[in-house]
């Protein structure tokens, strides 16, 4: 199963109405969720809808970023889910969160913790949090987008391989291959540009948040 790296907006501040609960999320809440999240504690999967058992997994959250009133997830996503998004089968994103006192919360008593990121099926579910960045913008390559949307990019390893193998610029010389360091630097640059355009931060500010 193919995998790619991408960044999705997954939550915003405000009062949100779920299926059985209403919750108010503040910027402090988002910062706390991002700070506490660690794959060493518990990895939050990408799923369809909100399955109680978090199955089947279609990817994993690697890191969370809280930027102003938005929470972003840096993820490893499987090709099956990417294709669902591209076909328009996903209406939006909704997260499931362990509250501070939830028994299953791996950091119970300390703060809230991300349980999973749910991709909602169009025609079945609609996201409770309105106005978030459309997930399609996180999985389309620049060549598949209109000229007005070329700021949005996919962090796909296969596209990076093609990118580096075709480069003939002075920056990369005439190499037919690229190093792991090259790939990581390019991925970092893409992520910074994504945050720069989505959040309105400067490039330096976005870079410092990602590196922090």
List the helices and strands and how they pair.
Elements: E1 3-12, E2 14-17, E3 22-25, H1 27-36, E4 46-48, E5 59-67, E6 70-78, H2 79-86, E7 90-98, E8 113-121, H3 136-139, H4 157-166, H5 180-199, H6 203-211
Parallel strand pairs: 4-8
Antiparallel strand pairs: 1-6, 2-3, 5-6, 7-8
Helix pairs in contact: 5-6
Provide an overview of this structure:
- The protein is of the alpha+beta class.
- The chain folds into two domains: 3-138, no CATH class; 141-211, no CATH class.
- Helix content is 29%, strand content 27%.
- It contains six helices and eight strands; from the N terminus they run βββαβββαββαααα.
- α5 crosses α6 (203-211).
- The longest helix has 20 residues, at 180-199.
- The radius of gyration is 18 Å and the shape is globular.
Mean pLDDT: 81
Summarize the amount of helix as a percent range: 25-40%
The helix-strand sequence is EEEHEEEHEEHHHH
Shape: globular
* Poorly predicted sequence stretches spanning 5 or more consecutive residues: 141-161
Strand content: 25-35%
Write a concise synopsis of the structure shown.
This protein has 212 residues and is α+β, with helices and mostly antiparallel strands.
List the defining traits of the structure above:
212 residues; three-stranded mixed beta sheet; globular
């Amino acid at each position: 199963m193919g995998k790619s790296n991408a960044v999705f907006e997954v939550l915003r501040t405000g009062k949100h109405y779920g299926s059985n609960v209403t919750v108010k999320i503040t910027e402090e809440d988002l910062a706390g969720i991002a700070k506490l999240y660690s794959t060493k504690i518990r990895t939050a999967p990408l799923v369809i809808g909100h399955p109680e058992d978090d199955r089947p997994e279609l990817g994993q959250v690697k890191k969370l970023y809280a930027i102003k009133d938005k929470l972003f997830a840096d993820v490893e996503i499987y090709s099956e889910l990417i294709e669902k998004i591209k076909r328009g089968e996903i209406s939006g994103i909704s997260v499931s969160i362990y509250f501070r006192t939830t028994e299953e919360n791996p950091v119970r008593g300390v703060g809230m913790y991300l349980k999973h990121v749910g991709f909602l099926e169009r025609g079945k579910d609609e996201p409770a949090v309105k106005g978030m960045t459309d997930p399609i913008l996180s999985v389309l390559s620049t060549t598949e987008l209109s000229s007005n949307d070329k700021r949005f990019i996919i962090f796909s390893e296969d596209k990076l391989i093609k990118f580096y193998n075709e480069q003939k610029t002075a920056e990369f010389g005439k190499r037919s291959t690229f190093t792991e360091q090259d790939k990581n630097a390019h991925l970092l640059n893409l992520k910074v540009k994504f945050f720069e355009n989505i959040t309105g931060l400067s490039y330096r500010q976005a870079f410092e948040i990602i590196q922090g």
